[in-house]
Fold:
Amino acid sequence: MNRQHGSPVSDLVDAAEIHMSPLWWLWLPLAAALFLALTTHFAQGFYADWIIREDRGALELAHVVIPLAGLVWALRILALPRLRQQPWLYVWFGLAALGCLFIAGEEASWGQHYLGWATPDNWRAVNDQGETNLHNTSSWFDQKPRLLLEIGIIVGGILLPLAALWRPGLRGRGLAPILPPLLCLPVALLAEASRLSERLLQLSGGDFRLFTRSSEVQELYFYAFILLYLVVLRRRLS
Structure:
């Protein structure tokens, strides 16, 4: 398919994904970041009660709903007949489906946040927050997978798509079917920007924060990146 030229926004998008509305991959993520930043500084009570609250906050709910949507799209990809002829793609998207299920389950403490069951005493003893999940028991289920995901988004969502602008041949090589499209770049940049200012200020000794609990905002964009990636790859592979 030939690249279609139009607005500067559409010129950012791979030709195969040119028909996805910028509303989903650009304007909505930007609007969400602006809303979160404004409420952080000008509506602290609303932000504390409705955005970052553990039991009913919008971010907590989004951390469950978005990965579940990603699971649906990963399963839709796995149902494509062509994947049966390419086992490595089947494995890749099988891992994506399992990853989305794990994220959603862990974020909801596998239903405890909504059904409210009590944590068994033996599990409470090894869980930092007394919940029925794994990520509060060890860094191997929390910080390390998070770091791996962040590195993957930086490399696959920012560096490789930008490199492909200067070396288009990168998209014609072996990993081309799973290379994130350039339209994932805004969400990837927002994921990194959401914590970059905090990290820089920590190094300089400042106390300004773009977002309260910016790690939660960063997770929102991590999961949005995964969902957007799977939606686009479903289009590409079908």
